[in-house]
Amino acid sequence: MPGHRLVIVGGGFAGLACAESLKDSGAKITLIDRRNHHLFQPLLYQAATSTLPLSDIAWPLRQVFRTRRDVTTLLGEVAGVDAVARCVRLTDGATIAYDTLVLATGAQHAYFGNDEWAAHAHGLKTLEDATRIRAHILTAFEAAERAEDPAERQRLMTFVVVGGGPTGVEMAAAIAELARRVMQTEFRNVDTRDARVISLEAGPRILGAFPESLGRYAKRALERQGVEVRLGSAVTDCGPGHVTARGRMIRAKTAIWAAGVQASDAARWIGAASDRVGRVQLAADLTVPGCSEIFVIGDTATVTSVSGAPVPGTAPAAKQMGRHAALVIASRLQGGSAPAPFRYRHQGNFATIGRRAAIVDLGWIHLSGPLASWTWGICHIWFLIGTRSRIVVALNWLWSHLFGHKCARCWFPRGTEPGGGADKNLDCFKKSDRGSFDIRLG
């Protein structure tokens, strides 16, 4: 079917895997994203805590597909889908026609009906989020250096991480390491080792998706690094300078939200059935029931695995969905028989707790400690895009591991960064030792 118009909305793991798998399919592919880059989200917390520059975990989509003449990349934000006319509507009024549509629009932060908390507890999903959190963390220490009131100094150096999943655990450990190991000799009026890092988890244990033994190890590893782990502590209020959980108010300058996500508006766009967090309920081939020309993949979709459990919202699962959707589309274009239903293959769960501690659940084997940390690092480096990124990230990790130096701890004061405007990339245009520049947003 020459000239078949395939529109993919979203340049994350799922959308990228789908587009890459349809090379030489004969389809005319249009990839739409509201940002111009693909982001390696599993390492976003390291950008937020100064371990990695933004340029090491984000790649321009146009660069990714620079040799693919069949792929057109468009910068735009989708406002809706007209399934009858088969076109995608953008917020600027433009429409993009399609013969086949793939929605891979990901997920966003969920504050469980308390959206006003978003102004006080920042989530971590984008480069903008990472730079904002990094600025909060670093400026909190700077303000503490000048504070004369001990109570105010303690508030400035208290960091609350809400959520005990992988993102929350990794973030809490990274902040603790930054305060206790990296910056301890750099300040004169405060001892950064006095910083409090508090991890709040509503459930009975952290890392509930991992085996219980690995969760216990992770809790001990966090506590060894000075993190206060509070279980059964659901947040009931979050305001300027405080977080309340289990009836106790915590005065903190910085709060980070890692407690939950909800799907994008894709289900509303196409009028499809969805679950309680907005994920589209799909047929076995990842299409929308009643709309066989529309696929939904990644965090926007809910799919049941062979075991009966829902497919997790992880990067490997998103990639598998993207490749399967591409397989179904390619078979249709070639007039072949339909592939077997989607089958999720578990490739393991990973979480790191600082420099030398990590946990790995491969199903058939459980790892913890330094060996797990090396396994975690090798797997993450392997999935980065491009040889240069793999080498640079590996060298940054080695340097940080040996000397404790964080390579991205510079920022511009609010409102003075290049390009103007607050809360943009506060460390943009930081000259690196290799002569390149960091990514600039805006």
Walkthrough of the structure:
29% of the residues lie in helices and 23% in strands. With 442 residues, the chain is of the alpha/beta class. Strands 5-2-1-9-22-21 form a six-stranded mixed beta sheet, covered by helices on one side. Strands 11-18-12-13-14 form a five-stranded parallel beta sheet. A three-stranded antiparallel beta sheet has the order 6-7-8. Helix 1 runs parallel beside helix 9 and helix 4 packs antiparallel against helix 5.
In short:
Helices cover 29% and strands 23% of the residues. The chain has 442 residues and is of the alpha/beta class. Helix 1 (13-21) packs parallel to helix 9 and helix 4 packs antiparallel against helix 5 (150-156).
Blueprint of the fold:
Elements: E1 5-9, H1 13-21, E2 28-33, E3 37-39, H2 44-48, E4 58-60, H3 61-64, E5 71-75, E6 78-82, E7 87-90, E8 95-97, E9 100-103, E10 107-109, E11 122-123, H4 127-146, H5 150-156, E12 158-162, H6 166-182, E13 196-200, H7 212-224, E14 227-230, E15 235-239, E16 242-245, E17 248-251, E18 254-257, E19 261-263, H8 266-270, E20 280-281, E21 287-288, E22 291-296, E23 301-302, H9 315-334, E24 349-352, E25 358-361, E26 366-368, H10 370-382, H11 387-403
Parallel strand pairs: 1-2, 1-9, 2-5, 9-22, 11-18, 12-13, 12-18, 13-14, 20-23
Antiparallel strand pairs: 3-4, 6-7, 7-8, 10-19, 15-16, 16-17, 21-22, 24-25, 25-26
Helix pairs in contact: 1-9, 4-5
